[in-house]
Amino acid sequence: MTVQELINQQMDHFVAKLATKGNLSIEVISDVATHISAYLIRNRHTQNGSISDQEMELVLQSIADYLTINFKDQ
Q: Quick check: 63 and 37 in contact, CB under 8 A?
């Protein structure tokens, strides 16, 4: 599974859960995206002992892509 696919899967999961509870706002979505990004970066660092700037940029760009595609006009 690619980073983008993993992020899409995780974001879809949490956004759907929050939407069913009626607890969806830009702040909450931002918090979820932040936690998912931090989790992926932390895990990569734990696995390899370090993380490159390119890997961090890939995670952050993947989050930005998800948000742009799914919340374009919001």
A: yes
E runs forming strands in 1-74: none
CB 64 within 8 A of CB 33: no
Determine the pLDDT at residue 1: 86
7 close to 62: Cβ distance less than 8 angstroms: yes
Listed in sequence order, the residues at least 6 apart from 28 whose beta carbon sits closer than 8 Å to its beta carbon are 18
Neighbours of 70 (CB within 10 A): 13
Q: What pTM was estimated for this model as a whole?
A: 0.87
Summarised one tens digit per residue, pLDDT across range 13-41 is 999 999 999 888 999 999 999 999 999 99
- DSSP designation for 21: T
